[in-house]
Design a protein that fits this description.
The protein contains 17 helices and four strands. It has about 450 residues and is mostly helical. It has two domains: about 110 residues, Glutaredoxin, CATH 3.40.30; about 325 residues, no CATH class. The protein is globular. The protein starts with 8 loop residues before the first strand and ends in a 7-residue tail after the last helix.
């Protein structure tokens, strides 16, 4: 076979690699209409064009332009990403200082372990040991975070501090929920698509969470804002991990897509936390709205999709499950647009979409509890889903009151009641329940 002259370029890949072939199948529909063809290194004309010996397979994919220019590795990936509208953010990220080196290292890690990532062979022992170390670090961080949060909450209740309920509820996320979420990403979710730099996120989290805690001990201003910067950097790193997970895992499994989109939402929460600690009033919003936006994008936009993704492992009614997950993922940006445009109708519609989607998820989850193997996990997940039903009913009642102009629930009272139901009840109990459940798959690592 010869390369047709009318092609704008050829994507050359290892036809014996299941991961490579899967990625080709996934992106063929996006690249073929743009003039790109696909051919494995094993084809004769490819071997001749690249000067490969019989049986020789390059370690990285190639892109061959009509002019004969040959791009390889991450350069080839970014070249292709720049040709696909929805993938262009990856190409833009690759142009940022330092990120090209990070992406290049990650590409080489994937290329070297592509057979293990695709499941064609066992995970190398070094990588498996590294995964276990990350699990231990995240477990230790969550334990320490729980102790610090308990002390902070006790100080607030005892009058030693006077920050109010919103910061106390928020601190559940950086101190406890995010490191526990790491354990699910390393074990319960499809960990084969976690990027190598996920290790950096696991190591950065305790330091960033500690800085956030110190930030709340200072009045809003530049020093408090600077202490929130490491958390924003962590959120950006996790969003990049979400992009990698989407790239490797694709959109076929809605459970994993929900988790990945939740990771992509996190920088919004980190950005609004920074604004809150700086004492800023972006686009006319003041406290407590600024801090509540940070809360929303950590709990409803990140933890809730994570728990929805985990629930996909026990839910049997797939059609209703898809509706609940899609509504959850669409509800958050819709609500953000409603607040930005100061549109009561859009805010009410978004709150209704989020509430109904999460209520549906809770009902489906309660029905699927019989599939849970660990009794403790079953109890925690049952409490999580029941808390979600109560919290969403309260949120919908609040949104309806706002729309009618007859709201009788003050924002601080709503934040406390909804925060306890959603933060402690749904999120914390849910994440703990799933952590216990997935531990059953790793009895030797306990």
């Amino acid at each position: 076979m010869s390369a047709p002259a009318e092609r704008r370029g050829w994507v050359l890949y290892d036809g014996g690699c299941p991961l490579c072939s899967g990625l080709v199948d996934r992106f063929r529909g996006a690249l073929e209409p743009r003039g790109f063809g696909f051919a494995p290194f094993q084809e004769r004309w490819v071997r001749e064009r690249l000067g490969l010996a019989a049986g020789e397979v390059p370690e990285e994919m190639k892109v061959l332009s009509p002019e004969g220019e040959l791009l390889g590795g991450v350069g080839a990936v970014l070249h292709l990403a720049s040709r696909i509208p929805w993938a262009r953010p990856l190409a833009w990220i690759g142009g940022l200082p330092g990120f090209r080196h990070l992406l290049d290292r990650e590409y080489r890690r994937i290329a070297a372990n592509r057979l293990a990532i695709s499941g064609a062979c066992p995970l190398p022992s070094a990588l498996d040991a590294e995964r276990r170390r990350r699990v231990r670090v995240s477990a230790a961080s969550a334990g320490l975070g729980a102790a610090l949060w308990s002390l902070f909450a006790a100080a607030e209740l005892g009058g030693a501090t006077s920050l109010g309920p919103i910061p106390v509820v928020f601190l559940l996320a950086p101190l406890i929920l995010v490191p526990l979420a790491f354990r699910l990403l390393l074990r319960g979710a499809d960990s084969s698509v976690n990027p190598g730099f996920f290790r950096a996120a696991v190591l950065l989290q305790p330091l960033a969470a500690g800085a956030v805690l110190l930030s709340f001990l200072l009045p809003p201003g530049v020093p408090a804002g600077l202490l929130a910067v490491p958390w924003l950097l962590l959120c950006l790193l996790l969003a990049l991990a979400g992009l990698f997970r989407l790239f490797l895992g694709g959109f076929a499994r809605l459970e994993e897509v929900a988790i990945d989109v939740g990771l992509l939402f996190l920088p919004v929460g980190g950005g609004w936390l920074l604004l809150s600690r700086l004492g800023a009033s972006p686009i006319g919003f003041a406290e407590p709205i600024v801090m509540l936006t940070a809360v929303h994008f950590h709990f409803t936009a990140f933890i809730a999709p994570l728990l929805a993704g985990m629930a996909g492992r026990i839910v049997k009614k797939r059609g209703l499950y898809r509706l609940s997950v899609l509504g959850l993922l669409l509800g958050t940006p819709s609500l953000a647009v409603g607040w930005t445009l100061h549109s009561p109708s859009l805010k009410l519609a978004a709150v209704a979409l989020l509430s109904l989607s999460l209520i549906l998820l809770a009902l489906l989850g309660l029905r699927g509890l019989g599939a849970i193997r660990d009794g403790r996990a079953e109890g925690l997940l049952g409490l999580s889903y029941l808390s979600l039903l109560g919290g969403m009913a309260l949120a919908f009642a609040y949104g309806l009151g706002e729309f009618r102009g007859t709201g009788r629930i003050a924002i601080p009272d709503m934040a406390l009641a909804h925060g306890l139901a959603n933060g402690l009840g749904f999120c914390l109990c849910g994440v703990l329940g799933w952590v216990l459940e997935v531990e059953a798959d790793y009895p030797r690592e306990r």
